[in-house]
Amino acid sequence: MAGVVLRDLAKRFGETRVIEGLDLEIHDGEFMVLVGPSGCGKSTALRMIAGLEEVSGGEILIGGRVVNDVPPKDRDIAMVFQSYALYPHMTVRENLEFGLRIRKTPQAEVDRLVTEAAQVLGIDALLHRKPKELSGGQRQRVALGRAIVRKPSVFLFDEPLSNLDAKLRVQMRAEIKKLQARLGVTTIYVTHDQIEAMTMGNRIAVLNAGKLQQVGAPLELYERPANLFVAAFIGSPP
Ligand code: ADP
Ligand code: MG
After folding, report:
1. What are phi and psi of 34, to 5 degrees?
2. Mind listing the pLDDT tens digit for each residue in 51-62?
3. 3-class DSSP state for residue 57?
4. Which residue lies with its CA nearest to atom 14 of ligand 1?
5. Is 41 in the pocket of ligand 1 (CB under 6 A)?
6. 41 CB burial (10 A radius; 0-12, 13-18, 19+)
7. Which secondary-structure segment (H or E) carries 208?
8. Ligand at shortest distance from the CA of 162
9. What is the spatial distance between Cα 206 and Cα 101, in angstroms, rounded to a whole number?
10. Residues having C-beta closer than 5 Å to ion ligand 2
11. CA of 85 to the centre of ligand 1 (A)
């Protein structure tokens, strides 16, 4: 396992400063929520941690190692996006196996890891099905399965539930929390939804216009907001 440290992290697209001076420490095994309004830089921050976006300034450390120049596949990270595209022509089993195969994992190990992930997520009975034969919730579980099957040290979630209906969203929040607690994997969970942040985060980092506003436990942010933005953002759900 490994914690994640952001040191004075910055991102510019041309003249536009999207992230500035971001300092944040996510402890080993912690569930950290990164919350902020649309366009504030959440996805950009996650993509830099995943190595999908170059860093303009500062450092990213995973497990104490600076990874700025480490390619995505060597960062021991799994990312789940909001459009959890499963490969439609592959079965659930093949979807789960894909990430292992491209890493040339031996077959016996592939079988073991897929069985384990499927059991954890309760999708053992679905392994032979194609994505179109699954419900929304089952698809979401397969998407999570693809993330956990390799046993990464860090999970990055980018608004993974925003395409689900309200009931399923509430259910999946609980499932993701349970899964993370069970696996103990360091997790950064991005959302623009204050309620989701308040119910899921052990700690919450509030971002606005590319700048960190406050980091703290839900109650701390609610009772002692550091500034007007945090007070308004956390205090007034949509
Ligand atoms: P969030 O995920 O919080 O909604 P993003 O990280 O997607 O925000 O975007 C933050 C800002 O960076 C937005 O203003 C967006 O338009 C801008 N941005 C994101 N990606 C690019 C890019 N590749 N080129 C230029 N601007 C970008
Ligand atoms: Mg985003």
Report:
1. -110, 115
2. 999 999 999 999
3. strand
4. 39
5. yes
6. buried
7. strand 203-208
8. 2
9. 38
10. 43
11. 21
